[in-house]
Amino acid sequence: MREPVLHLRPEKERSVLAGHPWIFAGALRDLDPGLVPGTMVTVCRAGGDFVGRGYVNPRCTIAVRLLTRRDEPIDEHFVRRRLTTALALRRALVPPDTDAFRLVNGEGDGLPGIVADVYGSVVVLQCLTAGAARLRDACIDVLLETLAPSGVYERSTGSVRREEGLGADEGVVVGSVPAEPLLVREGAHRFRVDVRAGQKTGFFLDQRDNRRLAESLARGRTVLNAFAYTGAFSVYAGAGGARRVVAVESAARAVAAARDHWALNALPAADAEWITADVFRYLRTAERSFDLLILDPPALVKRRHDVAAGARAYKDLHLWALRRASPDALMLTFSCSQHVSRDLFRKIVAGAAADAGRAVRVLRHLGPGPDHPVAVAHPEGEYLTGLLLEVD
């Protein structure tokens, strides 16, 4: 039985024809509100020409997420092609001494709503939309076939699933996943990853290349790792020869894990300082300066209508961080807020620099590693943006 056919409104075709994988409800002429969320549909231009095939959720603003622009069936063979292509790309781009990486990055790998992260012999799978949930079993079958993992753990939770009308789906789905954190390798460094309760799928894989950059800049410097979480940036800075690393994190459990990672990587205990505190409060009250500052806060803008308030929080963070920067200090600063564009983030930093009375230069624009590809027509996929700054 052929899937339903939906037609674009003539005046709403441009972004879809340019390659954007999302089709909003208002762009469709004949969206049937009775379609079951996750149903596969064919999308055509107003005149009937084929555009692509994807899955629908008439309850959501993003009504259709396109999977392909070819006239091909969406079945297990399709999923296998997508996943084997994604795996081949990672094998070409991820160093062989690293066994923790992102295998599937949603729209960037042609599988909207699906995220798969590899941690050694375990795969953590997220199916964040109704259509992704329909492809779940095919994804698991292909993962078992291509990677032969010891276990697959599902962490399909969060606000996107709630918007899609789905509940949380979490737990071991195949094989065995230890209750204790998994030991993984990132080059010469080792980390323990809690795939059951850690942030995201257990670790911030998207920052791997930026951690290497921090390592290359740390020698002889006093380093502030703000929002340190489990201390990955701290380990890299310490391994890079930092004179001292000060890690500030509000969650005591994360601070304990950061200490453990420092010891696990055989770094001198005397070279690190662990502070359990709110970063904003710490920056206001600390009477010290730093030669290298790393700011990697959680998303300060979670929804589009929170941009103004979030921008003020980002500006306040940078204002006080710049006041703690030594002359000629370097700063790596990031936003993982999808609704804060690269241009807006740079403007926020510029405003903070002006208020702090510091001259700041951009040395490099930063983002996630190449195992987090983004479709060129899908700027919404560029959630992580960052800057390497020099502070006079």
Structure characterization notes:
- The chain is an alpha/beta fold and 392 residues long.
- The protein has ten helices and 19 strands.
- Strand 16 (290-295), helix 9 (307-323) and strand 17 form a beta-alpha-beta unit.
- The radius of gyration is 22 Å and the shape is globular.
- The N and C termini lie far apart (67 Å).
- The model has no long low-confidence stretch (mean pLDDT 96).
Task: Give a short overview.
The protein is an alpha/beta fold and 392 residues long. The chain has helices at 14-17, 76-93, 130-147, 159-163, 208-217, 232-239, 252-264, 279-285, 307-323, 342-356; strands at 5-7, 22-24, 40-44, 50-56, 62-68, 100-105, 114-119, 122-127, 151-156, 169-175, 182-186, 189-193, 222-226, 244-249, 272-276, 290-295, 325-335, 360-366, 385-391.
Major sheet characteristics: 7 strands, mixed
Q: CATH homologous superfamily of the largest domain - what is it?
A: Vaccinia Virus protein VP39
Q: What best-fitting shape do the alpha-carbon axes yield?
A: globular
- At CATH level 2, the architecture of the largest domain is 3-Layer(aba) Sandwich
Q: Low-confidence spans: pLDDT under 50, at least 5 residues?
A: none
User: Class by helix and strand content?
Assistant: alpha/beta
Radius of gyration: 22 Å
According to CATH, the fold-level topology of the largest domain is: Rossmann fold
Tell me, rounded to a whole number, the average pLDDT.
96
